[in-house]
Amino acid sequence: MEAWIWFAIGLACFALEPILPYLVMTPWGLSFFMVALLAWLWPSIPLAFALLLVLALGTGLHLTLRPLMCYVVYAGKRKSNIESMKLRKVLVKESIGSELSRPGVVRMDGIDWRALSADGSTFQSGEEALVHRIEGSTLLVGGEPEIREEPMPQALWPKMTYIMKKGSAYWIRS
82, 93, 115, 152: which sits with the fewest CB atoms below 10 Å from its CB? Predict the structure, then answer.
């Protein structure tokens, strides 16, 4: 096969990249480009060898380069499990007392969690609360936070929102 055909297939892979998620076609497009370069340097390359080379390069790049590319492209855009739980609403299943000795149970995403009051408020069964922080497997919950705009010291992002409610404070990206 001629080099331009391999190059065109590589371009098609890159054209499909925005449609498919998580950088699936980029390693395959790179492997087709490498075979196009080889076909340009060695015009009489056997088709079976070229196809085997595309398969080997595409698989190798997909298994090695793709995780690295995903890490670089999506770094900081996804929250960890604990970070994704902060500031989410939960349903109180068993009442939560104001003292640390009175834990209760809350439900988030169909899972029951042990919960304590983060700000000293009490919650009755059936009420909604907000997760302030997580310590081990215990959620510390409280009421709705007060939201106010303040500049973040040495900010990496141009605008951050400071959320504070009775001693619990968070910076979140606006």
Answer: 82
